[in-house]
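Holo prediction. Input below; ligand is C2E.
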Amino acid sequence: MENRIPEDRKRILDSLFEAFSIVAEGTYVYLCDMRYDFSRWSKTAVDSFGLPSEYMYGAGEIWEEHIHPEDRDTYHASIDAIFKGEDGGHDMQYRARRQSGEYDVCTCKGVVLTDAEGKPEYFGGAIRNHGMHGNVDALTGLRNQYGFFEDLHNHIVKNTEVNICMFGINGFTQVNEMYGYNFGNRVLQKFGRYLLEYVGNHGSVYRMDGTKYAVISRTQTTEEMIRNYDALREYYHKGIVVDGKLLILDLSAGLLHLDNFDVDDQTAYSCLNFAYGESKIRRQGELVEFYNDLTDENRDRLEKLQVIRNSIVQAYQGFFLLYQPVVSAKSEKVIGAEALIRWRNEEYGMVPPDHFIPILERDPLFINLGRWILKTAMEDAKKILADYPNFVINVNLSYAQLEKPDFVDMVLELLSETGFPAEHLCLEITERCRLLDMTLLKNIFVNLQARGIKFALDDFGTGFSSMGIVKELNFDTIKIDRSFVQNIEADKRERELVGFFTGVADTFGAKVCVEGIETCEMKTILQQYPVTSFQGYYYSKPIPLEQFIAAL
Ligand code: C2E
Ligand code: CA
Ligand code: CA
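Structure of the complex:
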C-alpha cells in the first residue's frame, strides 16, 4: 500500500461514490480506492453493522469480521482474487452480522474499474440486505421464494441474461419418516450449505418450498450448469453423512435460460417448474432444460405462454371448448362427449392443448382455468341434456387440481351453481395422479362418487403404473389410449393387448372406452371385445357445441 490517500483522490472517491449511490438505490454502496485500500461505505451500512466509520482503510478485512464464519472462506477467496487482479468482480451471497449480533442474508455485487494500463483501480458495488425484507428462509438462511421472485423480477427488468436452475431432493418424506423431522431439517440445511459453497460467487442460491432449491446465475453457461448438476447429483448419489448416518439422496433438476425480457417472472417460473417436473417424472432426475425454441408461428415459446397465461386473467379470453362425441360400441349412437380445450387469438391462431396444458398445469393460475373448464362444460352439457336425457359429459382434470384441499367443495359448488345433475358428469384423470397422496385421491373418489359423479382413467397403458392406480381407485371407465389400437388391423400384438386390457377392466368392474377409432375396420375388430364405447375421428373430430347439437 502506498500510504495515506491524498485529498484529490479522496474527492474523486467521493464523487464516484455519489454516482454509485444514485444507481444503487435501496442498497448499501461501497467504493474502494484500491491503490490506497481506502473505502467509503454507505452510512446505513455503517449504522446497521456497527462499522468504524464511513471512511475505512482495509474495509475488506473489517467487513470479513462481520461475515458468518461458514461463509468467510468463500468471501475471503473472492476478495483475494479481486485484489490480485485475477477476478473482475463478484456476485455472491453471504450472511453478515448486524450490530445486534443477528445475521442478515446479503447479496453483494461488485466490479473492478481499471486504470488506463488495465491495473485495478477502484472496486465498487452494492450490497442488498435481504434479512430486512423477510425474504430469508429461517431453516437454511438462504433467500426464500420471495427473494427468488424479487431477484428474478430484477433480472427481467434490467434485461440481464441468466440461467436458472431448480433442484429438488426426491423422496424426502422417507427421510423424515425414518429418522425424524429434526434430522430431515439438518439434511436440508446441509444441502443448502453445500449448494452455497458449490455455487460460490457464480450465482445466488434460494430455498423454494419444501425440498426444492434454486440457483440463478449470470456468469455460468448452460453447459457449465449441466456439468455442475451432474457432479452434484453424483456427490449425493454416493451418499453423504449426516449425524453419523449415511444417506443417499436422489435429485431432480430443471433449467431455464432466460434471454427474453418481455415475459414476466411467473411465466418464467412456470416453464422452469415444468422442466423440473419432467426431470422428476420422466427422466429419472436427469437435468431437463426448458426448450425455448421458436414456435410454428416463429415466436418465442415463453412469450406465447405468457400471452396464453394472461388470457386466464383476462376473463379467459381466447379459450373455448370443443366436444368430441362418445358413441356406444354396440349401437354406435352418441351417448356422451368429451370436452377438449382450445385457445385462439389473432396472432397465434388456434393452439392445441398440448402446447400449453402440460406447462401451465403446475401454475397457480391453472386452478382458475380448470374451474372455468368444468363450469363451461356443465353449462353446455345442460343444453344437450334437455333433449338427450342419458347424455354424459367427460371433463379432463389435471393432477394439480386434485391436489387443492377444496377440490371436492369446488365441484359440488359448481354442480349447484349450474344446476347440473351429478350422474351425468364423468371426470377423466390420468395415471400421473399417482404422484398425489393416495389417501387424498381415495377421499375425493369416495366423496364425489357418493354424489353420483363418475371417474374415468384416461390414456390407460401409457404410464408407468396404470395397473397400480386401477387397483387402488374405483374407476367407472377405463379409456384405452389410441396408441394401442392404431395398427390393430395389421398387428396381432395390439389385438392381444386390447384383450388383456379389457380383461383388467372386467376384473375391476370398469367399463371400457377405446379412443382413436379412425376407420370402419378398426371399429369392426374392436366390436368383438367387451368394449362399451368408442371415440375417434371415424365418428367425429372435436367440434363446437352448436355443431355438436346440430349433428345430434
Ligand atoms: P386426451 O384427454 O387423451 O384427449 C383425446 C385427444 O385425442 C384429443 O386431442 C382428441 O382430439 C384426440 N383424438 C380423438 N380422436 C382421435 C382420432 O381418431 N385420431 C387422432 N389422431 N386423435 C384423436 P386434443 O384435443 O388435442 O387434446 C390433447 C390432450 O390435451 C388431451 O388428451 C388431454 O390430455 C389434454 N386436454 C385437452 N383438453 C383438456 C382440458 O380441458 N383439461 C385438461 N386438464 N387437459 C386437457
Ligand atoms: Ca381425456
Ligand atoms: Ca386419452
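The chain has three domains: 7-129, 145-290, 314-551. That is the main takeaway for now.
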